[in-house]
Amino acid sequence: MKMKKTNVTEIIVSGIQLHIMQNGSGGPVIFWGMYPHQGGEVEHFWESLMELMPEQNFLLVAFQVEDWNRDFSPWEALAVFGTEAFAGQGARTLKWLLEEGVPYIDRTYNVKEQEHWLAGYSLAGLFALWAAYECATFAGIACCSGSLWFKDWDIYMREHKLKRKCSVYLSLGGKEEKTKNAVMATVGDRTREQEKLLLEDPFAERVVLDWNPGGHFADSGKRMAKGIRWLMEKE
């Protein structure tokens, strides 16, 4: 392991890079699926968390995938922007998380008895939400500006229920559904329907759809930090 000046512990677990940061002791373990689209993403998210809840205890575990479209997509789909399709390897990522990532963190930090949450932005947000339907590991989900426009997600969410009792935070930027891309423009209606379905799900303890100003790329770190703060509130 090596410790950065920013107090980020970095280690590779079964081929996946982890960036680990801890505030205090105890509290939830927040797994965050990410890819470094920009420099300093981990530090920026951490700073956003510290601005909103500097006294809150938690362990942040960012797991960095190699290919955004491939590793966070739950199934295969054609490209909806650019030329890169979705290879549908989300199941492989989830398998790694459940069999390698989570056990490593539980063992190393002795946090097996603490709540485990899963957070993500955009396609990683969809992955976090999908994981809640596929496994019973996470007690809190933060799906921020999630890619709910993804092919056949509307069918999937109508046919599935959460695997365990958990709280789910959804958010979307007010301008996101105003895009000229016809597929991505469905994100507003799908996210509203997702909220409705979750409110009817017997395993959903708390659900909220939080609307943010701006489009998809407006300060993802702060939007996710808002989601984590909501999960912390427990009310």
UniProtKB/TrEMBL annotation:
Q: Could you tell me what this protein is called? A: Alpha/beta hydrolase
Q: Which GO terms describe its molecular function?
A: hydrolase activity
Keywords from UniProt, A to Z, are: Hydrolase
This protein's source sits in the domain of life called: Bacteria
Read off the SUPFAM superfamilies from this record: alpha/beta-Hydrolases (SSF53474)
